[in-house]
Amino acid sequence: MKYIFHLGRDAELSTLEVISYLERIQKKYKILKITKKALLLDIAKLDNNETIKNLGGTIKISLELDDPEKAIQKKIFSINSKRIHYGINSLESSTKSFQELANLVKSFCKKEKIKALHKHSKEREIPPSKSQNLDLELTLFKNKVYAVIAASDPKSYALRDEKRPYFDPLKVISVRLSKILINLAQPKKNDTLLDPFAGLGTILQEASLMDIDSIGSDNNPQTVNRCKANLDWAKKQFKVKKSPKTLVSDISQLSKKVRSASCIATEPYLGPYIKKLPTEMEAREIAKDISRLYNNFLKESSKILRTGSKMAVIVPSFKTRDSKTIRIGFQNMLRLHRFKIHQPLNNNLIPLDYVLRGSKIRRKIYILEKLK
């Protein structure tokens, strides 16, 4: 069966997440096409609702229709209404194919005396928030017809972010990015994921919603208490089964408190909040402190993870007022602490830039693999 994964704003990152997710759930796949908007895969069978729920960078999933006319007609006939709202996503397809598909839907509706309302016809790709109100949503990709079978729910992300007991937009990692990092780390069934910089617990929260066991630590007792409160709220709110473990620990002592974990997904402390670009001297001082933190983090992670384990981590660099980029020497640390860069695809994408609007700190996402 051929599935389109509609990719979010970071297409390359979203592609790597889908591949990592399929590896994580041990689902066989074949890559048919990768574009800036879509990833086309051949997969034997997919639980579309579970998949869209667990992916952070995919906004929709569409399934190819072997017989589009028959499938569309059947869907229209099954709608018990005298009016239907339908929409068409057009990805790398001609205007002619788009109009022909719209006319096909209209002709079936006319035959059944159903009023067909073509919604969002001027949008090449319908936002997932608008997909919820459609009775029928189709996708044209390379002039072939697919049916949208799942769409993400941005409102649920906002609920999990902003309605928690403790929320600070300047300090928390987003729900979307948390899911991506978890999938990049590839926790398998019965694995335990570790977040050594848990903060207010977004990664732990999303791991529990994905039915993954997890452990989180932070060096600030107050932050850990707030993290626990957020996780307790999420457990009651969403009726999750998993209860993440939390503990207070300085990163340099982590292996004494966490003996082992199957994988790591984390956004470490990236430095102080920067309102304006620093001077070169200021940037080097910040980078020096962050470098020590990351060195301790990799040293302790190397003791905790077993050979072959994956880690998804965000690494900062700092742009100065005179346009220089100051790095923390992260790749040199990898060799020292027995890690290598892991590439889910054989095209050397990692590390990937991750742009956060308004931030003065540059971020790269790494996927690492523990060596012997």
Describe this structure in words.
This protein has 2 domains: 2-152, VC0802-like (2-Layer Sandwich); 156-370, 3-Layer(aba) Sandwich (Rossmann fold). It contains 12 helices and 17 strands. α8 (202-209) packs parallel to α9. The protein has helices spanning 11-24, 48-54, 68-78, 95-111, 128-131, 154-162, 175-185, 202-209, 221-238, 254-257, 280-304, 330-336, and strands at residues 2-7, 29-34, 38-43, 58-64, 83-91, 115-118, 136-141, 144-151, 192-195, 213-218, 245-248, 263-266, 310-319, 325-326, 339-341, 352-354, 361-370. The protein is an alpha/beta fold and 372 residues long. The longest helix has 25 residues, at 280-304. The strands form 2 sheets. Strands 9, 10, 11, 12, 13, 14, 15, 16 and 17 form a 9-stranded mixed sheet that branches.
Summarize the helices and strands and which ones pair or pack:
Blueprint: E1 2-7, H1 11-24, E2 29-34, E3 38-43, H2 48-54, E4 58-64, H3 68-78, E5 83-91, H4 95-111, E6 115-118, H5 128-131, E7 136-141, E8 144-151, H6 154-162, H7 175-185, E9 192-195, H8 202-209, E10 213-218, H9 221-238, E11 245-248, H10 254-257, E12 263-266, H11 280-304, E13 310-319, E14 325-326, H12 330-336, E15 339-341, E16 352-354, E17 361-370
Parallel strand pairs: 5-6, 5-7, 9-10, 9-12, 10-11, 12-13
Antiparallel strand pairs: 1-3, 1-4, 2-3, 4-8, 7-8, 13-14, 13-17, 15-17, 16-17
Helix pairs in contact: 1-7, 3-4, 7-8, 8-9
Low-confidence stretches: none
Q: What is the CATH homologous superfamily assignment of the largest domain?
A: Vaccinia Virus protein VP39
Head-to-tail CA distance between termini: 39 Å
Report the sheet-strand fraction.
25-35%
* CATH fold description of the largest domain: Rossmann fold
* CATH A-level architecture of the largest domain: 3-Layer(aba) Sandwich
- The best one-word shape is elongated
